[in-house]
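To close the chapter, one final illustration. This time we ask the reader to focus less on the individual chains and more on the assembly as a whole: which components sit near each other, and how the overall shape emerges from the parts.
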Amino acid sequence: MTEKMNADKMWVTMGPQHPFSHGLWTLRVKVDGEIVVDAEPEVGYLHRGWEKECEQRTYAKIIPMADRLCYSASMTWSHLYCKAAEEALDIEVPERAQYMRVIADEICRIQSHLMWLAAVGTDLGNLTVFLWALREREFFLDLNVRLCGQRLTTNYPRIGGVRSDMPYYFERDCMRAVEHFEKTLWEIIGLTDESSIFVSRMKGIGYITRKDVANLGITGPAMRGCGVDYDVRRDDPYDAYDQLTFEVPVLKEGDTYSRYMVRIEELFQSCELIRQAMKKLESIPKTAPYRVKVPRCVPAGTTCAKIEDPRGESIMYLVSDGSERPYRLKVRSPVFVNVSASKNMVVGNRIADIPAIMAMIDMCLGETDR
Amino acid sequence: MPYNSILNWIVFTDPMQNGYYPYSVYNLPYDIGLKLWELLGGLIAWLINLLVPGNCVSTWLVCDQVANVFAIILMVVVIFAVGFIINLTMIWEERKVLGRMMDRRATKIGPLGYFQCLADGLKTFMKENIAPKKADKKIYWWALALVIGVSVLVACMVPLSGRWFIADYGTGLLIIFGLFALAPFLILCAGWAQNNKYSLIGGLRAAELMISYEIPMLLLLTGVILMTGSFNINDIVNAQYENTWYIIPQFLGFIVFLICAIAESERVPFDLSEAEAELVEGWQTEYAGMKWGLIMLGDYFRGYVACALVVIMYLGGWMLPYFGSTPVPELVFIAKVFLVFFIFVWARAALPRVRTDQILNIGWKILMPLAVVNLAIVIALRMGGVF
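The assembled structure is written out below.
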């Protein structure tokens, strides 16, 4: 009987190579006509033993590896790793380096969110949003090039500071990019938010509740879109974030549109943060150190460091045994946790909604599968 | 007819003088076809006469009956070639305009990037021709052939002017609409035959799409027919020249028809059946290589027909106000088609794709009542004696 009842339902395997997945993962959905009745995410295609590999390397050599965790949030990941090592070493980072890290992090956040915005455009079938967002992203990748010589794998933070001082006229270039971006972001919003079709595709789908957020451990914009007012940058400040004032956007609806709005608002807040940090940086003498010397070996013990990644709260758990290599380095990836909510989000919606809902998770398989 | 000189095979005659001329009015493509045959057939006749002087085949080849048959064949080729060139130009227009709107470089091959389509065609042509093992082969191939065939056929049915038509039916517009509506059914068959879940969903979506816009579209057609009193395209265009373009009394209808036309040609706000974000490539998923290239070409043929219908029904066809029929009315018509297609491209650049239930809502709750209102306006104008 049950077999017969299920005869009109079918499993559709969306992935691992599928336009909506933005990487190698599978979302198996059971559909009744077009309505999704069950879903099951499958990740792990990109597992490359990242954590085990780190155990074979010295502390300094792990920084470029941390860049490879996520292609568009490399700065925050290497920052997080450096932060974990600094906490294990009990080292205070120079103030100048703290502000430089904040600026680098926020540039990273903007370009990562722009990559997400571009992906939202293609997922909803509008290529213009994709190209306009990537056009703006290019300015921030250029800033990355100015700062660290690389567009994506930045390798900029160091244990005890940052790799190098800011280049000449970086402040001018950075402020130009930010001011230009604050204007052009409204152009993109004109294509998305002000288009009623776009809003109708977003609103009222992919609901998750505060209970789901607590049970599944969802963090980042997906959590703040459900009315949970929490941001590591504000509530557990690291580096110079306690010196800066910014708003944490929170929306109560918990649908795809609120998650979208949270990220868009975060883009504006990041611009504001860069502006404030640049102003604060002016008051610090240029000759002040941007890096302190650190020992090669980390004393035995355990450290847990967390940071606000563009995609959520990322945590690194470092177990050191007094040698120059970590005993264990565990990564808690926000996307890996958030994607577990995909069943709660997509069930009851249509197949056509799946790209729109999943775009809000902003999949990044490098950090998910590690 | 003597074939004693090399120049004698060229005998251009008036097509209307041909005893078997199939039309009642002057037909330019037939004329071109006849002249081409007089060149080609005359050359063959001359060559045969060179080998066997005084034979009967040479005269038979250029007599009225045979010339008429070959003229019709060549006429079809001419009409298809012109339609094909219009189609390629539309693809080029879309790519260029879209590139400008998206702030990126568009096509670059050839002068102004015009030959990009040829490069793409060559690329898809070079691909391996593969078909899924478990597909229903017969339907898989036939549905594909018919989707493309119907699209090309309906594009060739569209007259470019009063002298450029393939057939001057009394029910011209109705036949175009009928053939136009065949494609979604064939897409459904093609989606089913591929043994692929994405294709199946895409095919069913094509049917879902069709039931949401086809009825408003036919209601709007009724409005135009009521105003003109004829299905004949020539009559509709002439009536618009004598009175006014139907966009003025039926502006509402024009807007609704434009939306329906975009849906009919399955372009971006309504390309649900090939929504690449969720359905990979929709009903075309298992059609790889040249098959996909031809499907794309067929899509543009249907896009051309949709634009042409808008032009015929609301924008005065090949006539211009005050000027009437220009020396080359075909160019006026094509220019109007490109102008309407610009709106299509604009919609593609600006709008995201709508959802299946939303298109049903739009079709039944917005477009349908508006179409009825438009019909009421038409009837009121007709009863009031304005038209």
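Chain A has a mean pLDDT of 88. Chain A touches chain B at residues 10, 12, 14, 18-20, 31, 34, 121-129, 131-132, 135, 191, 195, 197-198, 200-201, 350-355 (CB under 8 Å). With these observations in hand, you are ready for the problems at the end of the chapter.
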